[in-house]
């Protein structure tokens, strides 16, 4: 097994006392501070908390105490994951100044493992966007080329991890927000099965789609983080006990594995991206896997289904931001209604407003049946289409995004054009399936291309192993490390 | 033309579970503002609701007690509207798949008021206005409610009142709510319409919101009936609208019409999974439930030989019914037990609230012992009464107040001796009796009873006295 995982690497450095956790943390904090001017990956650094945890890890090391797998690992959280005592804004003006009084379950888990939080990462406002540019702090840049976006909505996490400003990060994925920026930044992003990871403390965009997952430099790292956070949580009724640990499955032979390739996913995909995908499939064939071409016509409904249902849920989820209890409030108002109205008008950005309006519309009396209900029915159709597909293949291989990272300000020009770029990622969220993006080469613009593997519900062990086998076979040709940040 | 009143009720009842519907905060009434709160019930970003199982169980009990079908599968929905007392800007409720459906509540006139549904939902917080400022108290936010919706089956103010009282009795009886209208744990929205007697079709209804007293409800319905009849008779139309009752003027006034009605944009609550009530779960809830008060009434009449009026008074409060049943079980004279409760004990309980609490110094077991003495003929009813009085004062058992002599009973010879002595001491009365004055015998009997401190059987003594005088 080639050692691509940075988490085990740092673990070894710490345990062998080649570097102290405090020293390592300082390096990351320093890089984050200097590089952030270029990448805008972080919206808030948390040096105090980081150094405190690092000191605790060093104490444990000195005392010869057992360390958790993620102890001392510098990491980041997307700014929609609630952190007790640390401002959490979803990169929206409306939540500026909001400091949670409780921890999200995933952060609670990582805290108990002594993971070191370097800072909170940039994102599209309320996770609505594909470029990170709807952030009220401005977008995160792509470490491979700062004239390109890092992707979205978890652009800050992807930029920090690819730019070596964190060893791993947690993002959230509602329609591709982990996989797409991972693809754009040439790293690994896993969107787990809906229900595998607790959503408690994740500030909701679209509750029936949202899922937290790792953004990492390798599949090995993704499996390690996934195993840590995929735990049943009684605080989240939609969380499940079915998730199985994945790390121990890495390395299993995939000879005879059936890889389904639905042709509809390749419609409108850029030629250089298609070529990278074809190469990846050849690697799988060389590993003894069988490529099964098939058709999934219902995929064409994915985008409308996603935008109707996700916006409907968002319009309800975002109703609570009224300036009464927390966050920003407008300065001048005559009465309560005006206060709420002005607070929301000033606090939300254009993309968030667009989705709230769309969602409110599709749930309104007289339109519900034509939009929301119809989309719900089609959601069922898509779920069944995937079930049928997994009856004859083990995983599905498709592009993560039909192109490489957008130039800056591309998404601001046409909302619908941007929505269309989500075509390959949203079906997974509609069906609640796990999906992973792994680097599979470069486009004509020498920007990274992502291969997306999709599995059946709770098939993360097999899915991560399929990704791992590809990574082991092809990493040298398809991955390019960025030479900035903390290079270990 | 004569008009008929048509009413339908939507009743909100706070369930008396210890914790809120979606978090573990206390449901206790009152408390300093915002002290029964947590991130979940104040709707902080990222929090998720977690359904309290006890709420489902209580609501299923309410459904079973009102003859509802219990849905094996139901779900929660979001009702979206903006108001500062609603911290998430939506209320988690049930829209098209309620937990209970198609029940009924029987009235004393034999009519069944059909229930369309019972669903569960969360209560909102409260706005507090003080010196020109408005504050929000979220203590009540997330307190579990059931909403009980009738069909438009009620035909008079009396029926409406009886229905609400019946509902209160049933829900208190099974212990799911205290149903206190004055504290707001039971509140009604009343739908009122009128139609000419004999007409099939319903008139247009108006909904009077948030009634929290039976007396005001009666006034509001009476006013609304007159208002609607006046409108129709003067050739105008009743409009569908929401109205508020003004307690000062005794009138209802329009709040908003149908066209301004909120669009709640209901949709399934994605943060909660479906609510499944299996056959086993339903049966086990049924088993835990106290007997239906109506059935218990029938049983009290037949098993304990009680007049129906007495049985009705006993079952009205569950504690009293339980008390009676414990004290009367195995007694030969259950009517005497009922008389002790309805007479001497009720005399000490002034209000309905005191009756509901039913805190008396005598345990049902102690009353049972006392009644067994009556059953065995050792003491008579008058002694039961005076002893019970002392027991109620002190809480001590009957034996403390009854002497050896009281409990000794009377042999036939002893009774005969006392009677002979009494006749001898009342010669004049004996002579009067012989002369045909029946009443004279009562005077002699009185002295017998006095001499025996009530231990003598008056029928036996009377017969004996007559024999002695005639002899």
From TrEMBL, chain A:
<dbReference type="InterPro" id="IPR004412">
    <property type="entry name" value="GatA"/>
</dbReference>
<keyword id="KW-0808">Transferase</keyword>
<keyword id="KW-0648">Protein biosynthesis</keyword>
<keyword id="KW-0436">Ligase</keyword>
<feature type="active site" description="Charge relay system">
    <location>
        <position position="78"/>
    </location>
</feature>
<comment type="function">
    <text>Allows the formation of correctly charged Gln-tRNA(Gln) through the transamidation of misacylated Glu-tRNA(Gln) in organisms which lack glutaminyl-tRNA synthetase. The reaction takes place in the presence of glutamine and ATP through an activated gamma-phospho-Glu-tRNA(Gln).</text>
</comment>
<dbReference type="GO" id="GO:0005524">
    <property type="term" value="F:ATP binding"/>
</dbReference>
<feature type="domain" description="Amidase">
    <location>
        <begin position="23"/>
        <end position="464"/>
    </location>
</feature>
<dbReference type="GO" id="GO:0006412">
    <property type="term" value="P:translation"/>
</dbReference>
<keyword id="KW-0067">ATP-binding</keyword>
<dbReference type="InterPro" id="IPR023631">
    <property type="entry name" value="Amidase_dom"/>
</dbReference>
<feature type="active site" description="Acyl-ester intermediate">
    <location>
        <position position="177"/>
    </location>
</feature>
<dbReference type="GO" id="GO:0050567">
    <property type="term" value="F:glutaminyl-tRNA synthase (glutamine-hydrolyzing) activity"/>
</dbReference>
<dbReference type="InterPro" id="IPR036928">
    <property type="entry name" value="AS_sf"/>
</dbReference>
<dbReference type="InterPro" id="IPR020556">
    <property type="entry name" value="Amidase_CS"/>
</dbReference>
<keyword id="KW-0547">Nucleotide-binding</keyword>
<comment type="similarity">
    <text>Belongs to the amidase family. GatA subfamily.</text>
</comment>
<protein>
    <recommendedName>
        <fullName>Glutamyl-tRNA(Gln) amidotransferase subunit A</fullName>
        <ecNumber>6.3.5.7</ecNumber>
    </recommendedName>
</protein>
<feature type="active site" description="Charge relay system">
    <location>
        <position position="153"/>
    </location>
</feature>
<dbReference type="Pfam" id="PF01425">
    <property type="entry name" value="Amidase"/>
</dbReference>
<comment type="subunit">
    <text>Heterotrimer of A, B and C subunits.</text>
</comment>
<dbReference type="GO" id="GO:0016740">
    <property type="term" value="F:transferase activity"/>
</dbReference>
Automatic annotation (TrEMBL), chain B:
<comment type="similarity">
    <text>Belongs to the GatB/GatE family. GatB subfamily.</text>
</comment>
<dbReference type="GO" id="GO:0016740">
    <property type="term" value="F:transferase activity"/>
</dbReference>
<keyword id="KW-0547">Nucleotide-binding</keyword>
<dbReference type="InterPro" id="IPR004413">
    <property type="entry name" value="GatB"/>
</dbReference>
<dbReference type="GO" id="GO:0050567">
    <property type="term" value="F:glutaminyl-tRNA synthase (glutamine-hydrolyzing) activity"/>
</dbReference>
<keyword id="KW-0067">ATP-binding</keyword>
<comment type="subunit">
    <text>Heterotrimer of A, B and C subunits.</text>
</comment>
<dbReference type="Pfam" id="PF02637">
    <property type="entry name" value="GatB_Yqey"/>
</dbReference>
<dbReference type="GO" id="GO:0005524">
    <property type="term" value="F:ATP binding"/>
</dbReference>
<dbReference type="InterPro" id="IPR018027">
    <property type="entry name" value="Asn/Gln_amidotransferase"/>
</dbReference>
<dbReference type="GO" id="GO:0006412">
    <property type="term" value="P:translation"/>
</dbReference>
<dbReference type="Pfam" id="PF02934">
    <property type="entry name" value="GatB_N"/>
</dbReference>
<dbReference type="InterPro" id="IPR017959">
    <property type="entry name" value="Asn/Gln-tRNA_amidoTrfase_suB/E"/>
</dbReference>
<dbReference type="InterPro" id="IPR042114">
    <property type="entry name" value="GatB_C_1"/>
</dbReference>
<dbReference type="InterPro" id="IPR017958">
    <property type="entry name" value="Gln-tRNA_amidoTrfase_suB_CS"/>
</dbReference>
<dbReference type="InterPro" id="IPR023168">
    <property type="entry name" value="GatB_Yqey_C_2"/>
</dbReference>
<dbReference type="InterPro" id="IPR003789">
    <property type="entry name" value="Asn/Gln_tRNA_amidoTrase-B-like"/>
</dbReference>
<keyword id="KW-0808">Transferase</keyword>
<comment type="function">
    <text>Allows the formation of correctly charged Asn-tRNA(Asn) or Gln-tRNA(Gln) through the transamidation of misacylated Asp-tRNA(Asn) or Glu-tRNA(Gln) in organisms which lack either or both of asparaginyl-tRNA or glutaminyl-tRNA synthetases. The reaction takes place in the presence of glutamine and ATP through an activated phospho-Asp-tRNA(Asn) or phospho-Glu-tRNA(Gln).</text>
</comment>
<keyword id="KW-0436">Ligase</keyword>
<feature type="domain" description="Asn/Gln amidotransferase">
    <location>
        <begin position="322"/>
        <end position="469"/>
    </location>
</feature>
<dbReference type="InterPro" id="IPR006075">
    <property type="entry name" value="Asn/Gln-tRNA_Trfase_suB/E_cat"/>
</dbReference>
